[in-house]
Amino acid sequence: xxxxxxxxxxxxxxxxxxxxxxxxxxxxxxxxxxxxxxxxxxxxxxxxxxxxxxxxxxxxxxxxxxxxxxxxxxxxxxxxxxxxxxxxxxxxxxxxxxxxxxxxxxxxxxxxxxxxxxxxxxxxxxxxxxxxxxxxxxxxxxxxxxxxxxxxxxxxxxxxxxxxxxxxxxxxxxxxxxxxxxxxxxxxxxxxxxxxxxxxxxxxxxxxxxxxxxxxxxxxxxxxxxxxxxxxxxxxxxxxxxxxxxxxxxxxxxxxxxxxxxxxxxxxxxxxxxxxxxxxxxxxxxxxxxxxxxxxxxxxxxxxxxxxxxxxxxxxxxxxxxxxxxxxxxxxxxxxxxxxxxxxxxxxxxxxxxxxxxxxxxxxxxxxxxxxxxxxxxxxxxxxxxxxxxxxxxxxxxxxxxxxxxxxxxxxxx
Length: 414
What we know:
Oligomer: single chain
Helix content: 25-40%
């Protein structure tokens, strides 16, 4: 199987960490077969789904169409019937941990319609899986188990650091000859508006366009609990470690970067991230195709997800295909607004997507690209626990007082 664990995972120990509403969907693709495992706190089931060559070609076409405005709902419904429906998942499970493989790296299951759709483009009429469940992803069972343990954050100089590049000094693609990367007019506004949304955090900073350099990334990325990157990235399918993030060259051309070979080209390669001690609680890479990339036996997706995870990042939010600048802005700002309320990352993303579906555009091509990998714990404590605790104490005291007034001889307070 392609999605093979290199190190054994104690299944019982993993199950003991699952709550009543949690379920793990583990996929392994081998030739024309997709092996599916569902793991809950009390069960473990394995199934095999066989696809014909024509069906796999049909899936390839679906993946290609996801980044267009013409994604076909009937094809998404077919995927749900062929895979998710066969798992017979109870409605009680509302928190999905997904470990994808093969084509499922490129098809986020939250975009699948729950019920039968009337036609290919009835986006507004469809009900999507994301409206019923919160979803996060991991590259392996071992990574998932590790993500359940929220590591205490080391002392960071910043709670939030944003890097937004609207104007690129070198806008030429490094991977596609002749391709020019378009400007991102809302990238600067994105990182500043997110900073405003995170009103419960105090130490915040950002670098915009000309200041969004490789050197500023290297020198400051690891000093923030939350790092948000609004830029371009390119995924090199033939060698994912050479996938890259576009920033800007150093302001001072004579300034040496951490890697002399990249001192003035404004690029960060995925392989460079492996050597960086980032240890951020969360990084959001809001860029083209940041979550795509090849998958190899035993390693899952190889690219930014693996690189950031290896560098010590606990959670990574990224997009699987290129989306419009306006959509990226609205979804990410809404996501951080819910994070500021103290929600789990997967629930914050779920609500941001539902808001977008209901108020902006329900076409999955616009909102379905963002996925959450790794630890899902809140980055900001919830606003409500102390209120709930105080209310319970008051109610309990009031009930005790009423009982004592009614039966003073039967109740003794010690």
